[in-house]
Amino acid sequence: MTLVPDVACGLGGAQQCYGAQPCSVDGVFGTQYSVFVDGADTGGSYCDRELPAAAAPPQVTPAMVQRAFESYSWPASELQVQPPNGRTAVNFETFFYTEDDEPVTHAFTLLGRQVEVEATPASYTWVWGDGEQATTAGPGAPYPAGDVTHEYLRKGAVQVRLDTTYAGRYRVDGGPWTGLLGTLTVPGTPQGLQVVEVQPTLVS
């Protein structure tokens, strides 16, 4: 009598499987077969189990990263003023700038995944301290190339400040970058500036 195998063993070579019976290995149930080679019973058996699919890695969502982006303490930009030493003059062109214009990166672990968030300055808000302010895309520059200036119309002490608005993006496990929605503004530290009147002096 010719034996017809129940299934191909999947064991390689000339091995074939016969005589299906229930089996269980490590708590996983399947079907056990007797193993034959070239029609001869080898005395061995094979348990063909339905192994569970590998669990998908936990998903890091944009909302999770957005919350992390908004809760992280991104650095404030350091405000530079010219003339230096905390003094300027009425009706004098005062220059403001910052050298903090590069992206800042923060890396952390979220749900066991490596997440990297990058915050890039998108705009700067210059608070002059006299009731006026301005927003620019650039960080300004020192005299004489600077394009962020302000003239005070009266003398007195003012508090100047630079607020930085960041745009963010992120990537997971070194994958492609994904942009985050919205921006985040980090207020700068106020610093004192004394505005004085300069009286012209004739020199003979």
Order of helices and strands: EEEEHEEEEEEEEEE
Secondary structure class reads: mainly beta
How many strands?
14
Structurally, the number of domains stands at: 2
Please describe what this structure looks like.
The protein is mainly beta. It has two domains: 7-49; 62-196, Immunoglobulin-like (Sandwich). Helix content is 5%, strand content 51%. It contains one helix and 14 strands; from the N terminus they run ββββαββββββββββ. It is rod-shaped, with a radius of gyration of 36 Å.
Quick tags:
four-stranded antiparallel beta sheet; mainly beta; Immunoglobulin-like; 14 strands; 204 residues; single chain; rod-shaped
Give the secondary structure arrangement, pairings included.
Layout: E1 7-8, E2 15-25, E3 28-37, E4 40-49, H1 62-71, E5 80-82, E6 87-89, E7 93-97, E8 104-110, E9 113-127, E10 133-136, E11 149-151, E12 156-172, E13 178-186, E14 191-196
Parallel strand pairs: 6-14
Antiparallel strand pairs: 1-2, 2-3, 3-4, 5-7, 7-11, 8-9, 9-10, 9-12, 12-13, 12-14
Summarize the structure in short:
The chain has 204 residues and is mainly β. It has 2 domains: 7-49; 62-196, Sandwich (Immunoglobulin-like), CATH 2.60.40.10.
